[in-house]
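Moderator note: this is an archived Q&A kept for reference. The question asked for a predicted structure of one protein chain; the sequence and the answer are reproduced below.
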Amino acid sequence: MCGRYGFSIDEQEIRRIVREVEQSGAEVKTGEIFPGNTVPILISPGGNPRLIPAVWGLQNPWRKGLVINARAETASQKPMFRGLLCGQRCLVPSSGFYEWTHDEAHVRCHCRQPGEPLTWMAGLYDRGEGLPRFTILTTAANFSIAPIHDRMPLVIPAREGLNWLNDSMEASFLLGKEPAALSVRVV
């Protein structure tokens, strides 16, 4: 998990986010998002939430490739993520994420928060040269995703988003909280 997610321009809220980020002069990808794509993330430096463009995948200092996911359970122990977890948390807006079943059929499923315009995934970002880069935090799958995959993004309900971004104690609590049930459909 999570190697792809959706950022569908069909969603009104996503169109608004794209317009806001592209006002800064950046162009962001919509549709199916792959590692290395430039997309919006929500950050909150100094308690002021704002959308910025960022590239999905942290540079891996030890080998080739991008680090697109980090385990929520161990992020505070890993040198690559520890500092980011303290003050560079972000939210990744999406129209849901994709998982494939691990059986012979290898069926693709789209997973999202039911009744919500967006599915917000917890992430960590790093400001280096060029655009910021981010990784998505994953956690053990809840009962709605477990039949498909053993991991899932750490989904943060919109009402808890500012707590994730601005409050280290609350963020620590959310790291260990089981995400709510998601709707799953075969695509």
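Archived answer notes: The chain has a mean pLDDT of 93.
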